Amino acid sequence: MVGMTSAAGLVGFLSEPDNSLQSFALQRLNDGIELLWPEVAGSIDKMHALYEDDSFPERELAALVAAKVYYQLQEYNESMVFALGAGKLFDLDHPGEFEETILAKCFDTYIALSAMHNPITPASAANQQPPQLTTSFPPNANGSASTAAGLTSPTTPFSQSTLPSKSLLSRQESTSFDPSQPGGGNAGMVGAHPAPLALNRSIQKSLQAIIKRVFENCYRIGAYKQVVGIAIEARNLDVLKEAILRASQDEKAKGKKASTGATSKNEDLMEYVLDICMNLVQERGFRNEILGLILDMLHDIPSPDYFAIAKCVVYLDQHSMASNMLRKLVEEGDPKSLAIAYQLSFDLYDNGTQEFLSDVMIELPETEEETDSTALPHANGDAKKTLERTGENQPLLSEIGTSDGGPNTATMVSRTKAKEPTEEEKKRFASIRYILRGTKTIELNLEFLYRSNHSDRNILNKLRDSLEARNSIFHTGVTFANAFMNCGTTNDSFFRDNLEWLGKAVNWSKFTATAALGVIHKGNLSQGQKLLEPYLPKANNVSGSAYSQGGSLYALGLIYSNHGTDVLPYLQSQFSNASEEVVHHGGALGLGLAGMATGSEDIYGSLRTVLYSDSAVSGEAVGLSMGLVMLGTGDTSSLEDMIQYAHDTQHEKIVRGLAMGMALIMYARQEAADELIHGLLGDPDPTLRYGGIMTIALAYCGTSSNKAVRKLLHVAVSDVSDDVRRAAVMSLGFVLFRKPGSVPRMVELLAESYNPHVRYGATMALGIACAGTGLDEAIDLLEPMMKDSTDFVRQGALISLSMIMVQQNETMSPKVTTIRKTLQKIIGDRHEDAMAKFGCALALGIIDAGGRNCTIGLQTQTGNLNLAAIVGMAVFTQYWYWFPLTHFLALSFTPTSIIGVDHDLDVPSFKFHSATRPSMFDYPPEHEVKAEEAPEKVKTAVLSTTAQAKRRKLHKERQQRRESMDIDQTPTTPKILTVDEDKMDTDDEPSKSKDDKAGDKADSEKEGTPSADSKKKPEKEKVGYELENMSRVLPAQLKYISFPGGRYVPVKKVCRIPPNIM
């Protein structure tokens, strides 16, 4: 259409009765619509009429022109509708800007429509928790028992109704999943889709056809991940299932070519689905449906990824399916299947709770060791009855029970029980039980930490000498530093060599020092109880210190933390028989640690009995331990008891212990905890509101939930209690630790708050979320806070910096050297406040944790939540109120190593390759201690009179020379040198020069070594070096690790720290 400047004539043709003229006009307008659309826009109703006229032959062309005009007017909804009406004329094979924009709009509409038609029932709906828990809370200010609909509280400085209507804080928060809202469960969140258009059936069919065409193109080119992403966002499980099956079928069709690669496309896709499911899907109910779908497809996939399936099994608490998989792999009999079974067992132990693992072991075939292996399951039997009675497990299992997974599981169990295992299979099942109990993993980690211990004794000595032992806070600080620095290494030489210093500990300092032995010997299952024998309570020993006895029970729990099969009966009997409240305190903490997540009703009953004695000292520990035992169960009857007693007691310490206990019970429950959260946050007691904040932190830990973040930020700026505000900011670290890069930006303004408690919370949030990352943005925020005007803010900054800098060297993080020097300087500064010095002592222990072989990992290398680490970190933050709880941080320390074991579970000798320079991930240098220098000899003093005398003497000598030069001497004949004399002179010089040369050469040889070394230092290190099995390998180093072809090859891709089957 060269030279055409106006569309007036063509627009006029549209009013003509002749169809050929109208078609001609539409064709010419379609070709030049980019230039002519301003004139055409005024006559768009004519194109509407042509499109709606069924007798018009080019009605699709009229729709396309109308779509392009609306596109130019930026009316994308109308443009999409007419583009869909254009049928085949809307060309996807040669996309331009118009086509790409409309296609994106089509996907948005498809996702919104699909999400609306596929509502997800939330996990909390089946629990029926809200009606049970609302009776436990007093009516709020509005007269209603439930505070789920708002943020108002009698203690907040302003009510929700007084906020501006557009305010972020005034938005009414949905307490549960509302499928009727546009965008479903993500309504009101970033990325939520708008209300879908009301489309007629023909347009909806066209939309479905276009989406299907795009999906087919993706299948053809192998872009399965794009289809999976759209299917999950649209909540369309049929499309998700189709994508996974198509990927599996395509891989099978390729045959051997696909199997030769390191990881197949099917495994890669399954990993991608799980990653999205665990990290991006925020509705727990929908996540359960996706994981249930993956489990249902286990039999449809030709080569299932057992390790990906293990993640689903643990999350959904499908212990029957886990035991079936193990049984199936063992019965196959080939070495590869056996190796996969062993590796699967390590993964299950790494991610499962004690209760889950005991259930898996119950369903495995009986072996000769059955009597020993069932000790824990019997102890946990009552818990299972409780959970069945309260229905807490129903939301996890009910959705899957209706699918094929339930019947398949039942038939597999009955079939395998009928078949008696052979002797060889019994041995293999015994090995699997050995792994599932965790004994093998703990033994290997203990051996690694003992062998590779690089703790720096000089730092501890300087700490001991710099901090006055008579002050209990300083003595306790050195105790914690020693415990963390030697955690799991079994190296208690510092205590043994400083018995006089240790003897200065009294009362609770003695309790803490005794418990430190549990941190140092953590995991020493074979000798743990024997080591603590001198301190443990004895029936006939009345003279023993109650503080040592209580501390020893606490230490025993730390040694057997999350692995208490062998010591639970002993701890329970000692706890029940104790009369001293200090022994009750230590025994309760030990019981909670050893019986973590067992759900044992028996242990819970013993703890509750002591709670009702209303002792403040024992009550705090008992309340905490009740939560540890019932960790993550969501048991409503326990919550009812704890809420009721928290309102009845007058002791703040007991209320605080119960508040933390309730938060632990709701660990990882997400929406199921909402009613408890709203009830606690609406309570007039600030300690219970504190518990509500900690419940958000633990219930939504690692989810990055927008709803949780918004609630925490609101409380952080509105609550009248400093404790609650501090906890709210700190809890951001728990919710967002899977996205550490987002935390510095979020707390940047809070770190500059006028309130020191909010600033402290900001420091701890950075430390928790960015632990072990060495993140520069977090360090830049924390460095100025080391000089804060408030002592406890400096304390928090020092502790958080050590968490972030753990296992960092100068190559990885250049600022680590400066920070270490700052820590040393603060310890030696006599004018520094005691609080900051205590924080500095903790920091020096944390930064060198586990002999410099441990990091802080709140999630496992397989991507699941690290239960023990998160619980340990949450309880550690309570050191603000009670110093002995600091030891819980040891649960967060994770050994960083690669350990390979063979089919016999022995550690073979082999090497693997790290494609980095040795210095990149090397240990940091040890602290230099200045040796005591011998006093230097003082130079002889030179008096001024002596110098003057020397000057006079020199002056006289010069004067005499001048006078002698003025006297005329009698001329003398010059002496003629003889040949010999000349020869002698000439011979002397060469000989002397030879000697000089020889001397120079000798000197150069002596000085040659350092000069050569100095030349070598600047040379670049060679990239790549070999490492022995059971070597220290940092998480950031894993991507550089490879296994050259040899005798031993890992069963699965090495992306995890715990043992790998070779």
TrEMBL record:
Gene3D superfamilies: Leucine-rich Repeat Variant. Keywords: Proteasome, Repeat. Residues 122-192, 367-423, 927-1027 are annotated as: Disordered. Residues 949-959 have a biased composition (Basic residues). Residues 896-1053 form the 26S proteasome regulatory subunit RPN2 C-terminal domain. Residues 124-179, 405-414 have a biased composition (Polar residues). Pfam families: HEAT_2, PC_rep, RPN2_C, RPN2_N. GO terms for molecular function: enzyme regulator activity. This is 26S proteasome regulatory subunit RPN2. Belongs to the proteasome subunit S1 family. Residues 5-134, 200-371 form the 26S proteasome non-ATPase regulatory subunit 1/RPN2 N-terminal domain. Residues 381-391, 927-939, 989-1025 have a biased composition (Basic and acidic residues). Acts as a regulatory subunit of the 26S proteasome which is involved in the ATP-dependent degradation of ubiquitinated proteins. The keyword Repeat applies. It comes from Patellaria atrata CBS 101060. InterPro entries: 26S_Psome_Rpn2 (IPR016642), ARM-like (IPR011989), ARM-type_fold (IPR016024), Proteasome/cyclosome_rpt (IPR002015), PSMD1_RPN2_N (IPR048570), RPN2_C (IPR040623). GO terms for biological process: proteasome-mediated ubiquitin-dependent protein catabolic process; regulation of protein catabolic process. GO terms for cellular component: nucleus; proteasome regulatory particle, base subcomplex; proteasome storage granule. It comes from the Eukaryota.
